[in-house]
Each structure stands twice: as structure tokens, then as C-alpha cells.
Amino acid sequence: MGGQNIILCHLPGMGVTNAASAAENLRRSYTQIRLVLITGICGAIPYLPNHGHEEVILGDVIISDSLIKYDFGRKYPDKFERKNGKEEIIEPPNSEIRGLLGKLKTRRFKDNFEREAAGVLQALQAGKGNECYRYPGAKNDILFPAAYPHKAYQLESLTNCTCFKCTIASDKVCDGIRKKDCGALGCGERTMSVQRERLAQSNILPSIHIGKMASADTVMKSGKDRDELAREEDVIGFEMEGAGVWGRVPACVIIKGVCDYADSHKNKKWQRYASATAAAATMAFVKYWGSNTYR
Ligand SMILES: [Zn+2]
Ligand SMILES: [Zn+2]
Q: What GO molecular functions are on record for this protein (predicted)?
């Protein structure tokens, strides 16, 4: 592709350990590897506090220019299984990658990059049998306030609950409720959601955001902790594979599509579209990387 030799590697499962063993195998099998791109889906911060309150919507693409590992355990608004508070700053990418990402952050290159990625996405969506990668619709992109919990707002949803105590007033939410999607619980009422500017546009195209990715073997599921890490560490996305690959290969860039807002709410509608926007941005990125390197 684009005059580059590319190896595609499908991970056997999610998480840092799977990604780390894949990285080790790649490095052993292909000694000339110069760059590893990790693509897939991630969670995002809906408004980036240190980037002029930039709005991020589902299907946008997050690209890492740096990475932090965070290992707080599983995070829910009402339940912190905190293992330790240690955060580890990892080595920044090499100067070649830093230079390219710096260029792609400038308005002119970013606009072109987004246009090219959108073109690749459209071609991908038009492919036979690829209907599942189409935009799921603005009405399904629902953001709740960070403190608004994922709970049983409809009493019928409690019939399958394991504890029968997950009422609106109580603090705790059991696993049975946690695993249900917002529609079934009743938190999916639009009246409770945050109004988004970009969703009001007639033609919604994915934006690309470049910044610090947070990586851990656990899923970020708390709007409050999400916003805290965004504010304090300047994190712009959450994912689960980067920490396994970064540092094990000569260079690594994480390119992921936003499928949720890293809070407790659950909605599986966006995973395929987000994986497609990430794949499209990855193809566009390879082109820029190639022209940057061999010009
Ligand atoms: Zn329950
Ligand atoms: Zn919910």
C-alpha cells in the first residue's frame, strides 16, 4: 500500500497482554519493522479541557502522540476498585513520528488528512456487504452529564437484575444492571443528554484528534474519572492495547475510532462504524508517513 510493505496482524483478544505478545512475535518474525500502527476502537473525552474545549463525537478518530499507562483497576462512578495510583509516563515516539504528527496537527494538514480519511471511509462503506460500517445516526450518539449514572430508570428493567435493589435512589448498581444498555434501563432519554454542536450539522464527518492516549488493561467506565484524567494528564482517549506494544517496537502510533464516552453508559451501536473510521484514518496516515519518509 502506498509503496510500503505492510503486515496485518489480528490480535487474538483485547488487552495489553495480547498486544504485547503480538508485538514480540512481530519483532522476532520481521526484523525490519519501522512502525507499528494499532487500530481499533477507544473511549473518548467528549470535550477536551486543554484543547480549547474541542468537541469529540462518536466515530471521531484519536491518534496518539504520547501514551500514559494508568492502572487504577476497574472504574465505575459508584465503585472504585483501585489497585494503585501509579501512573507511568512512557517514552515519547521518535523524532520522525513526532515531526509527522506535529505537521498533521496544523490546520492545513489536518483538513487534508480528515478529507482523505473520509474518502477512504466512503469507499469502504460502499463495498459489498459493508452496510454495517455506515454512520449509525446522530440520534444514537448520546452523551450524558459526567455525574449522571447508568441505572435502572425503568422498573421493568429490574426484573432481570441479580440483586433487585438497583433502584434510582440507591448508590450501588449491580452487574446485572451495569451490563444492560441505556435503552433498556431508560437512561437513554434524550431529555437528560448533553446538546452537541457538531451533531446538529447536516453532514457529520469524523474529526481527527491528536494527543495523549491513556492505556490500561481495564476499561474506563467513569465520566468523573475520565474528566479528571483529561484535566490533569491531558489525556484525550482511553484504550487497552497501546501499553503492550509501545516500547517493544521501534515506533508505535495508536489510531482508534471513538465508540463510547468512557463512562458507565452502555451502547454497542458504534463499534463497527468506529472501527471503520479508524481503519480509514490508518490508511490515510500510512500515505502521509510514506511521503514524509521518502520524499
Ligand atoms: Zn441489581
Ligand atoms: Zn446508561
A: catalytic activity
Nearest to 72 by CA among 267, 210, 238, 254: 238
| Distance from residue 160's CA to the centre of ligand 1 (Å) | 8
274: CB partners within 8 A, 6+ apart: 41, 42, 58, 59, 256, 257, 258, 259
Ligand 2 midpoint to CA 189 (Å): 9
Domain ranges (residues) in the chain:
35-147+202-294
CATH no. for 35-147+202-294:
3.40.50
Distance 195 CA to ligand 1 centre (A): 30
Question: Could you list which residues have their CB under 5 Å from ion ligand 2?
Answer: 150, 182, 187, 265
143 SS3 class: coil
* Per-residue pLDDT tens over the stretch 91-136: 888 999 999 999 999 999 999 999 999 999 999 999 999 999 999 9
Centroid of ligand 1 to alpha carbon of 174 (angstroms): 4
Conformation bin of residue 28: beta by default, left when phi > 0, alpha when psi is -120 to 50: alpha
Q: How far is the CA of 54 from the centre of ligand 2 (A)?
A: 24
Q: Which residues pair with 43 in a beta bridge?
A: 238, 260
Q: pLDDT tens digits, residue range 275-289?
A: 999 999 999 999 999
Can you tell me the distance from the alpha carbon of 289 to that of 265, in angstroms, rounded to the nearest whole number? Answer: 36
pLDDT at residue 85 above 80?
no
Q: 165 alpha carbon to ligand 1 midpoint, in Å?
A: 5
Beta bridge partners of 124: none
What is d(CA 38, CA 255) in angstroms, rounded to the nearest whole number?
Answer: 6
- Tell me which range, 16-30, 156-170, 177-191, is most confidently predicted by mean pLDDT: 16-30
